[in-house]
Each structure stands twice: as structure tokens, then as C-alpha cells.
Amino acid sequence: MADDSFALITGASSGIGECFARALARRGRNLVLAARSEDRLRQLASDLQREHNIRAEVVAMDLSLRDAAAQLASVLTERNLAIGLLVNNAAFGGRGEFWKLPMERQMAMVRLNINTLAELTYLLLPAMVERGQGAIINVSSTASFQPMAYTATYAATKAFVTSFSMGLAEEVRSHGIRVVTLCPGGTRTNFFEAGNYGARSIPGGLQEPEEVVDEALRALERGGGLVVPRLLNKLGVFVQRFIPRQSVAKIAAAAFRPRNPGNSR
């Protein structure tokens, strides 16, 4: 997997993004680490450069802001950093009744989960096409396969990511570009706490982010495709095909309904 190009990882300061950084560094890949937390990024970059003898560049910025993707692409150009692998991982969620959650927070979610992902892909893809090689890993979610009340905006953004990624994969395959659509279920990160989801009871327990990343990278080496880590998650996605859509939405609503729906902030 090692070459002279860089892997750009968004949301690289923790969770799945950090695990991608560590796994790719072990494979000898040069990295560009992007997230808001500059101190954490610089510490991670320093550790990976020392441990694996790679280059690790840091770009500290809030990717949920308007035009963030264009600004990031401009930084890459200024530093002459060619991206051979784009890992669109940065995202966040939120739980509660849609009309009671802060509007700006939800619009920032849409910008980060959808706009920044699509814009970065648009801006970096032409160079991959010109070189005749490259790869993209878009981190979606099992939430993308059904409408989910009380986290409606987040699930809808991930539905976009899954559909966009799988469609894009068919467009770019003939150009030597591999696309992985990664749809993890409950994973041991700070996602549930940050999104006010509370303690979640996940069948089989939370999956370790290292497992999620390893499965994604194995798929990438095989040429890409849809990746739903863990057998229980695969079964859940498969079974939904045989249940009326409205029933799926009702089941999800029951699972995610806040205990005190009147206080969803």
C-alpha cells in the first residue's frame, strides 16, 4: 500500500479516524490528518512519524464550516501534497426531537456529513482520475439503511453517504479508483456521548474501532465495495429488505425514543 502519495483522513483526532491513521501508518502510508483538535493531531502525527518513519502533516480546521473543503484542498495544494487515498470520516450525530434540537447544530451536521464529504471528493477525485489510480473510503453507518426518528437528520445524512459512495464506485472503477462504503454499527468511540444518545444497549456490545478499520482496509485491498462490519449488523441490514419500510421506521423510533421526549436538548 505504501507509495509517495498521502492518505487524507478527516476526523483523525480520535475514534475511527485515529485508528485509520495508526493502521495506515503501520502500512507505511504518509498521512494528512485533519480535524479541529490541533494539539491532539500534532501529538498523533509526532507519534506516528517516530514509530513508523512516515510523514504526517496536520491541518487543524473545523470541517463543518462553509467552504471548509475548498480551504482544505487549498492547503493541500500549497503544501504540494498529492492525495492517493481519501478517508472521509469526519461526522457527528445528535439525538432528540427534530424541531427541538438547535437548527444551526443540525445544519452543521448536514454540512459536515454531506457537503464536506462530497466537496472533498469532487475536489480530489480529478487528480486520481488523471493518475489512473486512487482510493476513497467513505465512512457511513448502519443508520443509513433505515429512517430513524429522534436522530432523523443524522440517519438521513448517512443515507446520502451510502447511496453517493456506492454510485460513485461504479463511475470511477474503470479509472483505476477503488471506493469503500463503510457502514459500521455501534462502535466504541465518543459518538454516543457527543451526540447525546445516552448509554445504548447494542446486541453483541460495541465493536472496537480497530476491527472496523481492519475490515475496511481488507476490502480496499480486494478492490473496494460495501462493508458492513460484524455478522449481526449484516443480518440486520439484510432482514430489513423483507420488512415494510414503515414498520422499519416504527421499530427504529421505538429504539431511539428519548426517555423524556419533552426534554430533547
Labels describing this entry:
globular, Rossmann fold, 48% helix, alpha/beta, 265 residues, disordered C terminus
Any chance you could write out the topology, listing elements then pairs?
Blueprint: E1 6-10, H1 15-26, E2 30-35, H2 38-52, E3 56-60, H3 68-78, E4 83-88, H4 103-131, E5 134-139, H5 152-172, E6 177-182, H6 191-194, H7 209-222, E7 225-227, H8 231-239, H9 245-256
Parallel strand pairs: 1-2, 1-4, 2-3, 4-5, 5-6, 6-7
Helix pairs in contact: 1-2, 1-7, 3-4, 4-5
Could you explain the architecture of this structure?
It is a single chain. 48% of the residues lie in helices and 14% in strands. It has 265 residues and is an alpha/beta fold. It has a single domain, classed as Rossmann fold (3-Layer(aba) Sandwich), CATH 3.40.50. Strand 2, helix 2 and strand 3 (56-60) form a beta-alpha-beta unit. Helix 1 packs parallel to helix 2, helix 1 (15-26) crosses helix 7 (209-222) and helix 4 runs parallel beside helix 5 (152-172). The longest helix has 29 residues, at 103-131. Residues 261-265 have low confidence and may be disordered.
